[in-house]
Amino acid sequence: MTETPQRNSPDSGPGDKSLTKRGGGDPGTRGRTTIADGVVEKIAGMAARDVAGVHAMGSGISRTFGAVRDRVPGGGKSVTRGVKAEVGESQAALDLEIVVEYGVSIADVARDVRENVVAAVERMTGLEVVEVNIAVSDVKLPDEDDDDDEPEQRVQ
């Protein structure tokens, strides 16, 4: 006498799980993904710095503190300087503070920054960027010393 394998049927007992699908649904949709504000700030800061005409990010005071922090061993450059993000479950809003180079069109630079930041954040995070507010806090003149330049070495 040969036995045929029995398929899982509605009247099968609760212990018979041979053909029961576990978890249900697409594995990519199981669970939640949360993205920290700092992650979005880093992405936006990098995207804004890539735009021609943007000299630096942040206000004069934050750039001064940043320059000091950059010189401290292990301090590193702050990619998020001048960027503030508010991140929800599916949307993000950003505030950027930039310094533009003298001679460039501020309106064009702001538009380019907005486009670059929105594209980068949406592509990398999947979040909808609802607004990117840009505050131009300074203009870098050609004859001004750069706060971010390394100081001259006294000993050679």
Secondary structure layout plus pairing:
Layout: H1 37-49, E1 54-57, H2 60-71, E2 83-87, E3 91-101, H3 106-125, E4 128-140
Parallel strand pairs: 3-4
Antiparallel strand pairs: 1-3, 2-3
The value of Rg in angstroms is 26 Å
Distance between the termini: 95 Å
- Shape from CA axes? elongated
- Helical percent range? 25-40%
Mean pLDDT: 80
Looking at how many chains there are and whether they match, the oligomeric state comes to single chain
Largest sheet: 4 strands, mixed
Taken as a percent bin, the fraction of beta residues is 15-25%
Contiguous low-pLDDT stretches (5 residues minimum) are 1-5
Q: What order do the SSEs take from the amino end to the carboxyl end, as H and E?
A: HEHEEHE
Question: Which secondary-structure class do the elements indicate?
Answer: alpha+beta
Quickly count the helices: 3
Give the total of beta strands: 4
Descriptive tags:
156 residues, alpha+beta, 4-stranded mixed sheet, 3 helices, 21% strand, elongated
Report on this structure.
With 156 residues, this protein is an alpha+beta fold. The protein contains three helices and four strands, in the order αβαββαβ. The protein has helices at 37-49, 60-71, 106-125, and strands spanning 54-57, 83-87, 91-101, 128-140. Strands 1, 2, 3 and 4 form a four-stranded mixed sheet that branches. The longest helix has 20 residues, at 106-125. It is elongated. Residues 1-5 have low confidence and may be disordered.
